[in-house]
Amino acid sequence: MTPGIKQYINGVFITRTLVLSCSDFFCTLYGRFNCWQMESSHCESNMELKHQASLFCCFFLFKVSCITEFEITVPRGPVTGFYGEALILPCTFPVDSWDLNSTVIIWQRGLDVVHCFYYSRDQLDRQNPHYLKRTSLFIQEMATGNASLKLDRVTLLDAGVYTCYISTNTGSQKKSFKVNNIAAFYSEPRLQFSMLTDGLNLLVTSDGGYPSPKLQWLMENSDITNQTQTHFMQDTQTGLYIVSSWINLKEVTKSSLTFIMHNKPLGQDIRREIQLYSDKSRIGQSAYRCHGCSILISVILLLIVMGLLFVFITRRRTERTKQNDGLKSQISASSLASMRHNVV
């Protein structure tokens, strides 16, 4: 951080003659910005610096009386984000006699800097690389007290506790809230079935979702989940789940199966019914019909071959007959010419 920025921030947070609604916030920021000034990687454990900050806070609060309240607003409960989409982290502040030039907005997740704004523009030199080109403030709405952060292309790694720090010419405060879950919708389930020697295997698969869902199988409204097998696998790159669930039915009769998948954070409930109509007699009839079809096809092919052979033989005979007739005509003409020669 350049000396000018250090001086500006220290001026905003230390020399400003105002009353903070939270003295602990002021002490924390005072210590943190002095840590940046000292450029010490172990500043959090520097007892001397903390002692100096505490003395300054006590002196400041002793000298200044409460004049006004400065209260920022963030979500009270956890926030849920959607994987791959934009997530708005809400944070608002009062704007009485607001001045853009004296406004400082800092977003953090733990100790990671997510986004900084001061000197009337974004300051991203200390931004964590994980958030590179994914964060933005609503600068045009800042005059109305909007300090919310837009986080694009949300991933599972974006979950955590976020803190909004705001300081203006009327006050300063920080508040935190939790991005509890990054969730993703599961795809439409795909059904595959295969015939076994002693029954039927049904397999249902779905992917692209998060977190892991709760599955249930019903047969005619009776829970048969304990008769099924389910496998969860996470994609090594995205962390999203691939779900496979299957059941083996030994006696297939006319019945109704129901597959249910519940993704609680998103309220996604997928319910699909599977109607079974096959039985052993129908399977036998189908096999008999297929066998009869194969015999019929063989007979038809044989007839076609015999027909082609007959046409071929007929054509050969016709060609030979024509050749013999031509040869006979030549012989007759030669004999007639010889007889005429002898008479002369």
Description:
- The chain is 31% helix and 32% strand.
- The protein is elongated and about 130 Å long.
- The longest helix has 64 residues, at 280-343.
- The protein starts with a helix and ends with a helix.
- By secondary structure, it is α+β, with helices and mostly antiparallel strands.
- α1 packs antiparallel against α2 (23-38) and α2 (23-38) crosses α3.
- The protein has 3 domains: 1-67, no CATH class; 71-183, Immunoglobulins (Immunoglobulin-like); 190-280, Sandwich (Immunoglobulin-like), CATH 2.60.40.10.
- It has helices at 3-13, 23-38, 47-63, 280-343; strands at residues 79-82, 87-89, 104-109, 112-118, 121-122, 135-137, 149-151, 160-168, 171-183, 190-196, 199-209, 214-219, 222-223, 229-234, 241-249, 255-263, 268-276.
